[in-house]
User: Which sequence fits this backbone?
């Protein structure tokens, strides 16, 4: 059975955009949709003091609004919904573990970081067991392909096994939408101490450092091209910062797929510079995929 696509809602325009995107994705993939809102009376994201009954009424209204909205657009879609009295982080992490993907709304960069990058969103992205898709208001309801906004762009790095999960998600998304896929590998010049005889010999055999990076990307893509022969693939290798190179390739993208590197520090959890840049600055939905 196809696992559900889950979406967290909080009544904001961004979360309704996330519900629209998740519903369109679920309808396309033949998956059920699950709409969830979590709250606690003492939750720190409540800025105006209200009674427990008022909060419960508002929570129910958030979910009803989202259900009514998406069921009207997708009458054949199987939809379940739930209001949970629990912490948002724990609830959303549970949904991410049980579902095929979790979808959240995002305000992106600016003065207000809101639902996604506020008090709990980054924790969810950093710790989720499965892919988390960030959607902004106004970015459309389809990820990519003939009926959507464009190609699927995916960042690849390291050895083939390092990008297994992110490439699987990207190829599956491209296949589902009938979209082209653009695989991006950024590279930088190694530090001087890394220029040993072995590195130079390998680079010389490949015709230089950039052809060597091109070979690495081609090798990583090979099994996925074989598994998804109908997905058109463009290989994009460019020198520069990984975040900047990846973002520059998303002008016509319907979906950006990046991997996640979780870093723990005394000031909180970090998700890696590339995922951070993508979530703040990409103009299309962003899927953050944990390692396999």
Assistant:
């Amino acid at each position: 059975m196809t696992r559900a696509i889950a979406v967290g809602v909080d009544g904001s325009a961004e979360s309704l955009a996330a519900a629209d995107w998740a519903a369109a994705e679920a309808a396309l993939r033949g998956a059920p949709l699950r709409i969830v809102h979590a709250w606690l009376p003492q939750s720190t994201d409540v800025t105006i003091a209200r009674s427990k009954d008022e909060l419960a009424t508002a929570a129910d209204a958030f979910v009803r609004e989202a259900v009514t909205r998406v069921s009207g657009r997708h009458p054949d879609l199987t939809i379940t919904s739930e209001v949970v009295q629990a912490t948002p982080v724990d609830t959303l992490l549970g949904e991410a573990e049980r579902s095929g993907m979790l979808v959240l709304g995002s305000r992106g960069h600016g003065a207000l970081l809101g639902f996604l990058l506020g008090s709990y969103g980054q924790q969810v992205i950093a710790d989720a067991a499965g892919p988390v898709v960030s959607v902004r208001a106004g970015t459309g309801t389809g990820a990519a392909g003939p009926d959507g906004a464009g190609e699927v762009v995916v960042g690849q790095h390291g050895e083939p096994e390092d990008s297994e999960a992110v490439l699987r998600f990207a190829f599956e998304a491209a296949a589902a939408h009938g979209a082209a896929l653009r695989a991006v590998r950024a590279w930088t010049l190694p530090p001087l101490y890394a220029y040993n005889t072995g590195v130079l010999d390998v680079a010389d055999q490949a015709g230089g450092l950039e052809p060597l990076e091109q070979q690495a990307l081609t090798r990583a893509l090979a099994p996925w091209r074989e598994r998804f022969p109908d997905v058109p693939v463009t290989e994009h290798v460019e020198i520069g910062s990984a975040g900047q190179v990846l973002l520059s390739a998303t002008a016509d993208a319907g979906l950006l797929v990046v991997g996640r590197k979780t870093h723990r520090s005394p000031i909180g959890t970090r998700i890696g510079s590339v995922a951070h840049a993508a979530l703040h600055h990409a103009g299309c939905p962003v899927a953050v995929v944990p390692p396999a």
Summary: Residues 43-47, 109-118 have pLDDT under 50 and may be disordered.
